[in-house]
């Protein structure tokens, strides 16, 4: 029996969402681990792009920041940041944006700006960075985030980046013609937007997770698809590659003191 | 006017004034930390600080009381957490009140590009369905005169002074940047004056690509040789990012006393010559 943590299950499921021919704009943190796991397993030719301007990067360790030297040294090319946002992102050259969030609603709208009121926040978060335009300019968006009632809320405190707006065709009303969030991968399950309403619907549950757990860790009324799949457990290869990646990363970031 | 070689002290004293709008750029890479420390040492106040990713360098300037306003698009210690000095200033006005103007990366990258291009504003496909336009009056929407499409507009960034770090200058004062070049070229060309600290001054650049990012000497105000001047950021080809320092910064900045003690020891009683040892320690 293969043993793994819920976080490993999430990262592996997120990696599997990517295809070998994808061009993927990578958010820092959880998305970065998933994207590089995909590259090191089933998608060796995937193009990973970080907003620091590195195109087609193949880092041996995960970057602590989106501009670590490792990203540039292993990239096909590195462009200036205005070129990255203008030609490559805004120009529609990127098929998938992979993002995390602090708060998320059932339509995949993302908050990474503030918890509470904007002018008097309870918690001031780092802000949008590249996300507002990644969310609207990439062909589609994958979201990866640990599930909790605090993070998965009925109404987010601030719309940093657009998902499906208020649902239905609302996204298009902002002049956005890209697909938006098409998959949400958590440590408990995978959700996909309802074809019409666009609210997230649980389509696959990770092994050993109950529907009650998903409901308890979600701030909106959870919908389950008519046929809910069971997510395939991580393979030994996937786990080995992921753990080696994390071990190399820890060594690289910790041994300079 | 061609670039002049100066000491860091002289460069900051002659270019940066109280109340200026200054931009210190570098996207993780080539962040001009030594120059930031010199601004703190000279006690320059009421600065409007512009930077896409205010991280440790702006946490230090804000905590030291140099800033009245911050224009930014992502404020954090990457991979580590919050900027405690920034939050203390914004939330509790310590040591002084800090006003913020918040954008997205795309907006700021476009705004630097517009500044360099001599345009009054940048126009781009941005902020669609996002809430920042509600809280930032410097984000507006205009209609394309040809297609009618709604487009975001933000003012061009036109700093009084841009401060950046590069790998090399030659004896004539031309400057070479390599690796992740961020928005440095745009930020320098958008500014009235510029200070560029470099790892070394060489006779000539040798065999480089004709397309290597270079600023000719007449486009730069002051050049200062500061080996290791980007530490704890990095200079590709010279030293690695000191990720351990970025992690160590979190407890240092968390309370006012430890921050002030650090500032006293490493900035007030320090100097640009301290950075060379950091460069040696982070080779590898």
Tell me about the biggest sheet of chain A?
A: 10 strands, mixed
Biggest contact: A-B, 57 and 57 residues
SS strand fraction of chain B = 15-25%
Compressed to H and E, one letter per element, the order of chain B equals: EHEHEHEHEHEHEEEEHEEEHHH
CATH architecture annotation of the largest domain in chain B: 3-Layer(aba) Sandwich
User: Low-confidence stretches of chain B at least 5 residues in length (pLDDT < 50)?
Assistant: none
CATH architecture call of chain A:
3-Layer(aba) Sandwich
Q: How large is the count of helical segments of chain A?
A: 7
Compute the gyration radius of chain A: what is it? 18 Å
Multimeric state of these chains? heterodimer
Our measurement of the CA-to-CA distance between the termini of chain B, rounded to an integer number of angstroms, reads 39 Å
Give the percentage of residues in beta strands of chain A: 15-25%
Shape of chain A: globular
What can you see in these coordinates?
The complex is a heterodimer of chains A (257) and B (284). Chain A has a single domain, classed as Glutaconate Coenzyme A-transferase (3-Layer(aba) Sandwich). The radius of gyration of chain A is 18 Å and the shape is globular. With 257 residues, chain A is an alpha/beta fold. In chain A, the strands form 3 sheets. Chain A has a 10-stranded mixed sheet, with helices on both faces. In chain A, strands 6-7 form a two-stranded antiparallel ribbon. In chain A, strands 8-9 form a two-stranded antiparallel sheet. In chain A, 27% of the residues lie in helices and 22% in strands. By secondary structure, chain B is α/β, with parallel strands linked by helices. Chain B folds into 2 domains: 4-103 and 158-281, Glutaconate Coenzyme A-transferase; 105-155, no CATH class. Helices cover 31% and strands 23% of the residues of chain B. In chain B, the strands form 2 sheets. In chain B, strands 1, 2, 3, 4, 5, 9, 10, 11, 12 and 13 form a 10-stranded mixed sheet that branches. Chain B has a 3-stranded antiparallel sheet with strand order 6-8-7, with helices on one face. In chain B, strand 3, helix 3 (56-63) and strand 4 (67-72) form a beta-alpha-beta unit. In chain B, helix 2 packs parallel to helix 3 and helix 8 crosses helix 9 (256-268). The mean pLDDT of chain B is 96. Chains A and B meet through helix 3, helix 4, helix 5 and helix 7 of A and helix 4, helix 5 and helix 8 of B.
């Amino acid at each position: 029996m293969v043993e793994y943590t819920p976080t490993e299950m999430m990262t592996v499921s997120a990696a599997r969402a990517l295809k070998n021919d994808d061009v993927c704009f990578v958010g820092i943190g959880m998305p970065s681990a998933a994207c590089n796991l995909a590259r090191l397993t089933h998608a060796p030719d995937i193009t990973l792009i970080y907003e620091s301007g590195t195109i087609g990067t193949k880092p041996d360790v995960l970057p602590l920041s989106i501009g670590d030297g490792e990203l540039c040294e292993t990239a096909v090319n590195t462009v200036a940041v205005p070129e990255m946002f203008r030609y490559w992102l805004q120009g529609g050259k990127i098929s998938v944006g992979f993002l995390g969030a602090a708060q998320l609603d059932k339509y995949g709208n993302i908050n990474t700006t503030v918890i509470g009121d904007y002018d008097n926040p309870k918690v001031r978060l780092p802000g949008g960075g590249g996300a507002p335009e990644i969310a609207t300019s990439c062909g589609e968006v994958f979201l990866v985030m640990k599930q909790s009632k605090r993070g998965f809320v009925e109404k987010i405190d601030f719309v940093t980046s657009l998902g499906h707006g208020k649902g239905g065709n609302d996204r298009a009303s902002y002049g956005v013609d890209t697909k938006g969030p098409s998959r949400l991968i958590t440590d408990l399950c995978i959700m996909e937007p309802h074809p019409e309403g666009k609210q997230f619907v649980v389509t696959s549950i990770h092994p050993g997770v109950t529907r009650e757990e998903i409901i308890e860790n979600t701030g909106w009324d959870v919908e389950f698809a008519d046929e809910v799949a069971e997510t395939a457990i991580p393979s030994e290869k996937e786990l080995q590659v992921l753990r080696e990646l994390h071990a190399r990363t820890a060594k690289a970031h910790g041994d300079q003191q | 006017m061609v670039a002049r070689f100066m000491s860091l002290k002289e460069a900051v004293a002659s270019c940066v004034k109280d109340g200026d709008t200054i931009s210190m750029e570098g996207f993780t890479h080539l962040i001009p930390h030594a120059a930031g420390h010199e601004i703190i040492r000279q006690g320059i106040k009421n600065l409007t600080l512009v930077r896409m990713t205010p991280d440790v360098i702006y946490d230090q300037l804000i905590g030291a009381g140099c800033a009245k306003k911050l224009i930014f698009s992502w404020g954090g210690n990457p991979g580590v957490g919050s900027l405690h000095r920034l939050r203390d200033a914004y939330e509790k006005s310590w040591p002084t009140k800090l006003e913020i103007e918040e954008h997205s990366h795309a907006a700021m990258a476009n705004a630097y590009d517009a500044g360099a291009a001599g345009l009054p504003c940048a126009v781009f496909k941005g902020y669609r369905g996002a809430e920042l336009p509600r809280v930032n009056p410097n984000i507006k929407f205009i209609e394309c005169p040809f297609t009618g499409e709604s487009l975001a507009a933000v003012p061009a960034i036109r700093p009084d002074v841009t401060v950046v770090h590069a790998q090399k200058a030659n004896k004539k004062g031309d400057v070479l940047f390599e690796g992740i070049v961020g928005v440095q070229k745009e930020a320098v060309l958008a500014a009235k004056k510029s200070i560029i600290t470099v790892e070394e001054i060489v006779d000539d650049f040798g065999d480089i690509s004709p397309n290597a990012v270079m600023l000719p000497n007449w486009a730069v105000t002051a050049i200062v040789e500061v080996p290791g001047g980007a530490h704890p950021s990095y200079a590709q080809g010279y030293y690695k990012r000191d990720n351990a320092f970025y992690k160590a910064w979190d407890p240092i900045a968390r309370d006012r006393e430890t921050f002030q003690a650090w500032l006293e020891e490493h900035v007030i009683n320090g100097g640009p010559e301290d950075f060379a040892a950091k460069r040696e320690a982070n080779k590898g």
